[in-house]
Every structure is written in structure tokens, then in C-alpha cells.
Amino acid sequence: MLHHAKLDNCFWAEAAMTAIYVKNRLPSPKVVHKTPFEIVYNLKPSVKHMRVFKCRAFILTPREKRLKWDPKAREGMFMGYEEASKAYRLYDIEADQVVISRDITFDESTFDFSLDRPSDDYEDAELDLDLLAINEDDVRQTVYKKTGKRKSEARPGMSRSARPRTGLEQASAPAHVSNRHQKRRSSAPEKMSDDEEDASVYDQDDDSTPSTFWRASANAVEATDLAEPVTFQDAINGPDQAHWRNAVKAELKSMHLRGVFRAAKLPRGQGAIGTKWVFKIKRKADGSVEKYKARLVAKGFKQKYDIDYTETFSPVVKYVTLRMVIAITKYFDWPLDQLDVVTAFLYGVMKEKVYCVIPEGVEMDGDFDCLELVKAIYGLKQASRVWNETFDEFVCSIGFEASAFDPCLYIKVVDGHCVLMLVYVDDVLVTGSSLELIAQTKADLKTRLEMTDSGKCTFVLGIKLVDESDGSVTMCQRRYVNDILKRFGMDECKATASPVDLSTRLVASSEAAKIDVPFREAVML
Hints:
- It holds the Pfam family RVT_2.
- It comes from Peronospora matthiolae.
- Keywords: Hydrolase, Metal-binding.
- Residues 55-116 form the Retroviral polymerase SH3-like domain.
- InterPro entries: DNA/RNA_pol_sf, Retrotran_Ty1/copia-like, RVT_2, SH3_retrovirus.
- The protein is of the alpha+beta class.
- Among the domains are: 2-118, no CATH class; 232-480, no CATH class.
- The protein is built from ten helices and 21 strands.
- The strands form five sheets. It has a six-stranded antiparallel β-sheet with strand order 14-15-16-17-11-18, with helices on both faces.
- It starts with a helix and ends with a helix.
- The model is unreliable at 117-226 (pLDDT under 50).
């Protein structure tokens, strides 16, 4: 619908809701002679009120809202149907907002009218490198080398953000829709060509989050290859206790070398926050175990604003930046190396006085009842910010400059050669036009930070990078999807076009049986 109507992706939510509304009133191939609407409400739906998507509409301005010589109507375009009332959703071109109204005059024969959108209050930032003149819209999920043949050209003028469909007031006092789109003009719709490919869909989920979960669902899988201890006692007494004990020792040793803690007595009136051990199995791209990781984290939710912390924000690299850099490496045939900062947060020095209780596994000598945090450990509200400030200060001191487009993209130019560095918390990607410059950059980083050099990047942020025979690279999250299916007991399920079981008989909420499943957790993944 969007492509046919020549609309920006900012109207995706409206188009999706309208498509659902229409589809629910069309006969279903699964149920003969019935529509989904009729199955639910036991009524035949009316289609007399339906209109053509994006057709011209004139919205009546109430008499009390207009002056004597003002026009009686405003020009807009039809967006969809309001579920809560017998009204339509329309885009008011002049006001640049979606309104709801019943007093509409439609012109379903006209589509060719201008759609002037207010411009952004910012300009697109560009990398200060002539050889990197690559637009975001040219970066697909599959990208090609300079010598490779591209399958299709990227569609111009397509925004990646979708405007959420929220509750709106009536047309007399419409809610304002966020104005963040560049000025563009829509032309008359025309039929899409057969060779036009669908836009790539990119899943921005990150599987680096802890995999502990509530075992409340009977469908939750108890897979040993995904099991990770929840508590300290589970780890040191479980089947893999040798691995976890070594991981705990390595974490405590690293903290001791970094000078993270200082033994102290808790001052009167001062509170001490708790700590917790988090255990994670880090896997390779093929799913095999790379290493067992134990991390001591603070229970930062007990911190108090303006006492234990102030500022907390810290940036992470944008996924569009990640795709852009991967595209650049394939286009210019540059290497892409991956490094990992060991216990990154422990490099940041605390500005506030924060005390924590003595963690499990730590033995203290002397008359001490708590630990003072000298360095920012994981879990503290300000930990990521302190680490980001420390890293930014260091890399800028060795000649890098943060991009105006993405503060986690660092650029360094030396004698006509450049190095690009991406940072996602403790994961660092380095690429560039000179192997010597890349090696020098990694050496400079290791003078200050303890890092593991994984060499060529094949797996980053839960995304597997697969080099294809035609010179392209594919970004794949197959393992992450399979892990989620196993986690919720759906790994043996049969694929279907719709998640709804058409044979299910809907009942009133009072008659429905209580189902104990981690629904919200699964949706948020």
C-alpha cells in the first residue's frame, strides 16, 4: 500500500492498521464463506463505508473554529478507520498531523496532489571523507563489493522509522504527530514493476542480554545447552562447577588488579547497595561454547539519584552505522577486525562515594563491613557512562575523532589513509584502508586497555556475518531465533502464515482458563 501510494515509511503504522482492518473483512481461505470479522462477532461486516487508501479528502472545519472568510474545509488524505468510533483517520496536510473526523467529503478519483512535508530541524551529518560518500539508503542487509553486481538499486526517500499509532483526540483538538521528516513531494501512484524487490527487514534485537528467565510456563524448555546458573550457589555446586569457579576467580582477580574495591567501614547514615553474580556462556558463531563468563554486578536499582549517581546516559553504536561500516568494508575490500575489552567498566573511575556489601565468594580480613567502589562495576547506573567517557578521552588522545553522525564511530586520517573504529560497550570493530594503520591502532589500544583480538569479525552483537561467493556479505541471526524458539518450547512447532489458530473458539474473558506463560517476556525479545 505504501509503495503503491508513493508514501514515506512514516505512514507505515497507519497503512498497517488499515490493511488489517480491510483484511478482517475479506473472506478467509481457511474458513469458507466467512470473514474473520464474522467469525468473531457473528455479524456480516459492512463495506459501504470503505474508501481508497490515500485518496483526497476534505475535512470540515467546525463553524466555531473558523472565521467568516476562512475556507470551510481543509485538504487531507484518507489514512484509515477509527476503531473506537464511526469515524475516519485522515492526514491533515496543512497541519501535518493525523486527525479523526466524521464530517468528510471524499474524492476517490484523485491521487495526484502535492504532499509538502515540513523539513527536519537538523541536517544529515556526513563523514568528512570524500571516499566514504555512501548514503544510508544504499546499505542493504546484503551488500556487495565494488566489482560485484548489485541485484537492485536502493529505493530513494524511504525513512526507516515508523510512526506509532496512538490514541488521538477528535478533529477539533487533534494530537500532534511528531514532525521529524524531510520535505518531500508525493506524486501520482503507479503500479509497482514486477522486478522491484521488497525492502530488507533487519532485526535489531541483541542477544547479549542475560538469558535467565522465569520458569513459570509449562512450555518453557529445559535445554541443557541453554542452561545458565541463576545464583552463585547454583554455579559453584552445579554440573559445570569447575568452569564457573574458574570464571569467578578470573573476575575477582581482574577486579583486584584494577583496584576496583577498597575495604571500608560503612559511614553512619550511608547505605550500602547489594551485589549479584551473573553467569553467561559466550558462544561462537556456530553455537559452540567459547568461554564461561562470571560477572559481579551491583544492584543499581537501589541507588538514589543525586546521592549515588547523577548522569547515566551513554551512547552505543547505531545499527545503521554498523551496516554502513560493513558495507564500506565490502565495497572497498577492507579487512574488519574485532576486539573485546576485558572487564571494560572497571577502567572508569567513580566520582561519587558508593558502598556495597561484601559479595559472595569474597573473604575479608580485618574490621571491615563493606567495600567502597573505586571503579565503576557493572550494574551501577552510571557505569556505562563512566566507561564511555574514559574510552572516548583515550581514543581521542591517540588521534581519533568521534563522528557527528554517531558518537560511537571514530575516524582517524593519516597521510590519505583512514581508520574507522566502532564501539558497542566493550566490543570494538576496526577497519581501514591501510593494514599498517590498523595494526598500529590495535597496538595503541592495547597499551592502555587489556583486550582480546579475535581477528576477522564473523560474529558481532548476535549477528553472524557470512561471506557469499558473489562477493556479498549476509547478516544472519538464525542462532538467536533458534535459541528463542527453544527457550519458549517452540523449536518443534510447524511454520504457518499466521500465528492465530483458526480452529480456536473464542470465549468471554470470565470463561477463559488462566494461562501461565511468559508472554510479555517473549514479546519484548
